Amino acid sequence: MNTQIRSGEGGRIPFRSSRFFCVGNKWYFTTREGFDSGPFASRDRAEIGLKRFLHVVRMLPEEQQVH
Question: Which of 9, 35, 46, 67 has the maximal Cβ count within 10 Å?
């Protein structure tokens, strides 16, 4: 688990859990905003899905980015 301090965070590091979870045989990822995406056939596929999601979010103009 990544325990580095994110930009904008100060002091104690808040509890963080994995962004990935499995229901049945299907994998999902969740965002900080509480959006769940899936199902994916494997955790590897869910990780690829998260990377794609983050890539798209980074391309948005800053005022439209999800924080």
Answer: 46
d(CA 20, CA 5): 20
User: 19: left (phi > 0), else alpha (psi -120 to 50), else beta?
Assistant: alpha
Report the alpha-carbon distance of residue 54 to residue 11 in Å, rounded: 26
Query: Any idea where the domains of the chain sit in the sequence?
Result: 20-64
DSSP state at residue 36: E
Residue 9 has pLDDT above 70, yes or no: no
Q: Give CA–CA dist 67/62, Å, rounded.
A: 10
How far is residue 34's CA from residue 11's CA, in Å, rounded to a whole number?
A: 23
**Using one digit for the tens of pLDDT, what is the confidence trace for 15-38?**
566 899 999 999 999 988 889 999
